[in-house]
Amino acid sequence: RLPGQRLSASRISESLVSGQDIDTSKPHPARMYDYYLGGKDNYEIDREAAERIIRQSPDILDSARANRQFLLRAVRTVVASGVRQIIDIGTGIPTSPNTHEVAREIAPDTRVVYIDNDPIVAAHADAKLTSTPGTHFASADARRPADILAHPAVRDGIDFSRPVALLLVAVLHFISDTEDPAGIIATLTEPMVPGSHLVISHGTVDFHGPDRVADEVYRTSTARVEPARSRRDRPVLRRVHDARSGAGPGAAVAPGRAAAGRRGARVRRGLRRGGPQGPM
Questions:
Q1: What is the mean pLDDT of residues 45-63?
Q2: Nearest to residue 228, comparing CAs of 250, 207, 242?
Q3: Which of 42, 127, 163, 264 is 20 to 30 A from 246, comparing alpha carbons?
Q4: What is the CATH number of domain 60-213+228-274?
Q5: pLDDT of residue 162
Q6: Res 260 pLDDT > 90
């Protein structure tokens, strides 16, 4: 099934979500993203909201897929560099291959801690993310970085005396300026030693005008998208870079089928390697 093919009933397993506090009265970005990727774990209200955005901005599908491919490439890159610990914040609904599966193709001893605040993601985590040793899941909010670092899953799963890869893929555009995304990143990266990696992708309207349809849809969902012009995402990345000297590809446009055309994929992504004492 591809986006655009309408389904009349939810296809999410009721056994997975029973007892969970799941709001099906509003679309949820994680379930909409699952729909963009061709997944099945979404409700009718999510599909209707996603289709509104697709009709206005068809390249959202390329952007979602380009973002997913960036995540997989970034995981391979950090593991190939020697990192054996990953914190994946804003995990989203599991989509195979998942972070731990990609990492363990290169290094089977890689440990992964997944972080998300969505009950549906938590429901899937037991079956798809934490069913093998060395993987953990923490139900926590990216807006509360101190809680993430203090969570038992992070304390038990991550040794901060060794390099860590911190993934914030398609997360920061859901965090408003008043919630201080740069401060969140600074808190999360403070315990990371040299040789660690920070991986970020961020939605942008650098290549389009503001998408009022998307803004309206996400404003009425369980999370809204912060307007992501370059004056928002570039300074955030620059402040992190200034505080944590690093080396790496930096910020660039995520490739996609539409990138060669007039519109282009609307994702910026970046990879930084380093730590409090500078690059390794």
A1: 87
A2: 207
A3: 264
A4: 3.40.50.150
A5: 98
A6: no
pLDDT level of residue 29 (50, 70, 90 thresholds):
confident
Beta bridge mates, 197: 165, 273
DSSP conformation letters of the chain: --TT---SS--S-HHHHTTS----SS--HHHHHHHHTT-S---HHHHHHHHHHHHH-TTHHHHHHHHHHHHHHHHHHHHHTT--EEEEES--S--SSPHHHHHHHH-TT-EEEEEE--HHHHHHHHHHTSSSTTEEEEE--TT-HHHHHHSHHHHHH--TTS--EEEEET-GGGS-GGG-HHHHHHHHHTTPPTTEEEEEEEE--TTS---HHHHHHHHTSSS-PPP--HHHHHHHHHHHHHHS-EES--SEEPP-GGGGSSS---EEEEEEEE-TT---
Residue pair 86/99 in contact by the 8 Å Cβ criterion: yes
How many Cα atoms are found within 13 Å in the side-chain-facing hemisphere of 231? 1
* Positive or negative: CA dihedral 228, 230, 236, 240: positive
Q: What CA–CA distance (Å, rounded) separates 48 from 27?
A: 8
